[in-house]
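User: I'll paste a sequence; please echo it back and then give the predicted structure.

Assistant: Echoing your sequence first, then the prediction.
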Amino acid sequence: MIKKGVITAAGLGTRLLSVTKAQPKEMLPVFAKCRDGSVCMKPIVQLVFEDLYNIGIRDFCFVVGRGQRTIREHFTPDFSYLSILDKRGKNGLAKELESFHEMVRRSNIVWVNQPEPKGFGEAVMRAEEFVQDESFLIHAGDNFFVSKSRDHLTRLLDAANSLHPDAVFLVQEVKDPKSYGVVEATGGTNGLVHVKRLVEKPQSPASNLAIMPGYVFQPRIFDVLKETKPGYGGELQLTDGIQGMVDLGLAVYGILVDSDSVRLDVGSPDLFMEAQAVSYRWASEHKMPVEQVQSHAFQISKTA
């Protein structure tokens, strides 16, 4: 049973300057459906936290960098602010914020600092003391999947709990895999693939199967990462660490994300614009087919 979750939020967000000079990109807002059916906005890292909370995670480790104060303040309940909202008649928003505060109150949260961004793999290593000898789930704080009943996460946990692999992570077919970690795999029965090879941001991708930022690892990943040399961009890449596990003959699997799931990514201006469009349509017209949601976002990006 996976009990611990790690959320990484330590990147510089240089592609989104100057808005990310004073706040981390993980605090950028996207649209969401509130409990009363209205549309509200939440930082994308809050959506990630709420998803992990709703699948049963209660012990959290946030790996944060230079913008850590903003995130920590957001995850600090402020009941006086709720009182102000109530007095001003903002009852729906107050209840939404109160629900988030209750999730935070019921969770154990540890904050770990990554003073200098040295790669996703190095950020994962920062959580070793928190994880200790347990399997754990890790999720990037700047990506969020809109899926029915959090299907992508429940399938990820089901695979981890039933197969007990050394590593299992989300994968998805993409049109242009050059900007992703790319997977070569076999199988595909019930959405499960056996990973044979991984390459970070290859110039000539061997497949269109890209790594998505949701993983479950056994603690052995830390030993492998310590032996992994810096790779793409001179940083310690988690993709290279997973390849190290494959080279050792360890069990590494991928879970195919269903085609009806939509990924929100705020890592660059064009992706942030798309995330805004997709999340708004999803929050305001939740029953709209995903194909129409994505088409709407594409039309906005074409005319912007």
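The CA atoms of residues 196 and 230 lie 21 Å apart. The two ends are 46 Å apart (CA to CA).
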